[in-house]
Amino acid sequence: MTRRRAPVSPPVALTIAGSDSGGGAGIQADLKTMEAHGVFGTSVVTAVTAQNTLGVEGSYALPIEEIDAQYSAVQTDFDLGAVKTGMLATAPVIDLVADRLTDAGAPVVVDPVMVAASGDRLLDPDAEAAYEDLIAEATLVTPNVDEATVLTGIEPTDRDTAREAGEALVGMGADAALVKGGHVGRDGNTVTDTLVVDEEDGLATRTFEHPRIDTDATHGSGCTLSSAIAAHLAHGETLPFAVEAGTAFMERAVRYSLDVGNGPGAVHHLAALREAADRHRTMTDVAEVVEAFVDRDVSRLVPEVGMNVVGATAYAERVGETAAVEGRITRTLSGVSPNRGVRLGASSHVARFLLAAREFDPDLRFAVNCRFDDETAAATAELDGPTTEYDRDAEPDDASGTMGWGARQAFGAVDADDPTPVAVLDRGAVGKEAIIKVVAETPEELGERVFALLDAVE
């Protein structure tokens, strides 16, 4: 008996862009990003480039007839939910694409690719003026600072000039413009992207802020962001939501960049997908640690507030991407027991501490809070690494949260060349119980460190 087919009907998006032989940008980045968002990606290749993580070595624009044939083949067969454009290379190609997208019948995201992240020029200077007609067809245009300057004559150097450039792009016919802030104030700690939308009652501006990532591995970032936004639009989501989700996706893709090639590397187009795939394993790891603590009876180390074991996925950025015991581990007449099972987002305090610690050492994946007293504090000397501490009395009134602030105090005081602390002593404050937090890269390592503490105090 043959199995009954069970077809899936995902939304379809189209990318019109150049090919990147290095795999980090262009068509390759677009299709990976669309797939990561549950969108079936189709493509029209406009040019073939010889490039890698070090730079662009050559570029060849395909004949107009071949580009048009690809578009016709896709457009006549697929119900397109969104279209995005990338490297178009020449004025004739831009004119062709602008003409075809007049009747696209789907949201159009225009990424005006002119210069690669490496600084190499990807667009024929004669083609810059041709972009005006294409921008007029755009649901959203997503230039970086250099591209916005070329297109509008306004150099975005701060929020006001970024807004002005966005307004100028909307004035050219785009429904909305997202002026990317990655190149603005590179010495600052925050990246601000500025979205200007043409609404019924006038232009509306919204900004999206996220921490600047200390990396040069941004190859493919523009392609990935515009493709992520197009994918969300293909799912039928609103433009503001698509931009917010796309920028968040981009932040994770840059932070967990791929260390490939001899250059800086490339953004990780599948980082969010890998995070989701890692959740079950992380929950299982936490459950196994909890089982080991119950079997060994770690009641001597359980604080008055209860103990919790937290595991973060390899790409975790939020509390909801960490696994922990729901309700914590508490002492019983016969030892210790978890109140309930392990689930995502079950911890607040320990999870936020772990996430903040990962800002200093992303390899940290697991944490547990233990009782603080004279004996356990002394026992930390038996651990297989250094310890550190912080004083809650020094916490400023404007701190965003004790756990994040404490982790930054503890791990931020450690020299970058020194080993990461394996335990942090929180001496508490009025109404706040003193706690020892043990951290580790693996569940096995976490268990070994907790048992080392237990052996020392028993």
> Biggest sheet: strands, sense, closure?
7 strands, mixed
Quick one: overall form?
elongated
Distance between the termini: 63 Å
Percent of residues in helices = 25-40%
Number of separate structural domains: 2
User: What average pLDDT do the residues reach?
Assistant: 91
Strand order of the largest sheet: 14-11-10-15-18-17-16
Question: Helix/strand/pairing class, anyone?
Answer: alpha/beta
Would you give an account of this structure?
- The protein has 458 residues and is an alpha/beta fold.
- It folds into two domains: 12-269, UDP-N-acetylmuramoyl-L-alanine:D-glutamate ligase, CATH 3.40.1190.20; 278-457, L-fuculose-1-phosphate Aldolase (3-Layer(aba) Sandwich), CATH 3.40.225.
- The chain contains 14 helices and 18 strands.
- The chain has helices at residues 26-36, 64-75, 91-101, 131-135, 145-152, 159-171, 221-234, 239-255, 271-277, 279-296, 349-358, 374-379, 402-412, 443-457; strands spanning 12-20, 40-52, 55-61, 80-85, 108-110, 140-141, 176-179, 190-199, 202-211, 309-312, 322-325, 329-332, 335-338, 342-344, 366-371, 387-390, 423-426, 435-440.
- The strands form four sheets. Strands 14-11-10-15-18-17-16 form a seven-stranded mixed beta sheet. Strands 3-2-1-4-5-6 form a six-stranded mixed beta sheet, sandwiched between helices. It has a three-stranded antiparallel beta sheet with strand order 7-8-9.
- A hairpin with an 8-residue loop joins strand 17 (423-426) and strand 18 (435-440).
- Helix 11 runs parallel beside helix 13 (402-412).
- The longest helix has 18 residues, at 279-296.
- It is elongated, with a radius of gyration of 26 Å.
- GO terms for molecular function: ATP binding; hydroxymethylpyrimidine kinase activity; phosphomethylpyrimidine kinase activity.
- This is Bifunctional hydroxymethylpyrimidine kinase/phosphomethylpyrimidine kinase.
- Keywords: ATP-binding, Kinase, Nucleotide-binding, Transferase.
- Pfam families: Phos_pyr_kin, ThiN.
- InterPro entries: Aldolase_II/adducin_N_sf (IPR036409), HMP/HMP-P_kinase_dom (IPR004399), PM/HMP-P_kinase-1 (IPR013749), Ribokinase-like (IPR029056), ThiN (IPR019293).
